[in-house]
């Protein structure tokens, strides 16, 4: 039994390693879809800490994604040097910060933003919490969109470009590489970086789930009053959930900025937050494999449906826009799935039940 389990893990690992090399033959666009799917997996796992473990409905999670992206954009582009004379005197070409500093800094700044969001909403629950967090996400987006005057920090709706690519031990991931005779595209190199970060995130989430902190979050999710009666510091646990969940969003945002080479407020709309919440709910609240499945499906499905929406648009004589048709098909698919699987595609067996102690 143990040997079969080990074999499954080995085969799964090999499949993940070979996947981008296979997708390359069908075009780099398919590898790019896989890259973005990995980023959404990281975002969904971070939100799962807040929603799935602690039971705090957060509809403004995209704000931490934006914080990480703009942090990397400011630290790895010539924007600040071009805008501020004093900064240009010290750093004529900009900061061009190393990834080894960007990742922990992105985690720290986003975690601080998560705690700042958590402080005013500690006493809120359910719909009220969702509305306030939704407002927080929109405030951050609008703030970024308008912070080009009187001091140009975010460049407003124009966004920030010329962002550095990721460089690891002298290897520039933005350049095509030839390794052992294989031609490996830039998007494939980013795939492997994102895969390492996702695996790191999964390990942390599993460790948190089985820790005292994770059990405390689940107790708060099931019954906050009972958790407080058992001596759990509900206030600190909620703030920790907001901070930990936000930190993964910050890392995903910084990687998104490096991958795209450009960030703008349009990438961090309310629809992004809704989609990330849908990934967690659709996959299965609190269940890591389910959340990963939901993130992969919902991030890849819109791209796959491009090939379905086109023929349908032709059948209607071009009266319906292809993008609207794609959204309609996604919505119908989600409705059908939630009707058939109301607890998600791959729900946790413990969700909604008391945790049983191992005998």
Q: Please give the count of helices.
A: 15
Write down the overall geometry.
globular
Radius of gyration: 21 Å
Structural class: mainly alpha
Strands across the major sheet, in which order? 1-2
Protein model, in words:
The relative contact order is 0.17. A hairpin with a 2-residue loop joins strand 1 (167-168) and strand 2 (171-172). The protein contains 15 helices and four strands. The strands form two sheets. It has a two-stranded antiparallel ribbon. Strands 3-4 form a two-stranded antiparallel sheet. Helix 1 (2-24) packs antiparallel against helix 8, helix 3 crosses helix 11 and helix 14 packs across helix 15. It starts with a helix and ends in a 19-residue tail after the last helix. With 359 residues, the chain is an all-alpha fold.
Features:
two-stranded antiparallel ribbon, mainly alpha, two-stranded antiparallel sheet, 359 residues, single chain
What topology does this entry show?
Elements lengths: L1 H23 L3 H26 L8 H14 L3 H5 L1 H6 L8 H20 L7 H21 L20 E2 L2 E2 L4 E3 L2 E3 L1 H24 L2 H11 L1 H6 L4 H27 L9 H14 L4 H17 L1 H10 L6 H19 L19
Antiparallel strand pairs: 1-2, 3-4
Helix pairs in contact: 1-2, 1-8, 2-8, 2-11, 2-12, 2-13, 3-6, 3-7, 3-11, 6-11, 9-11, 12-13, 14-15
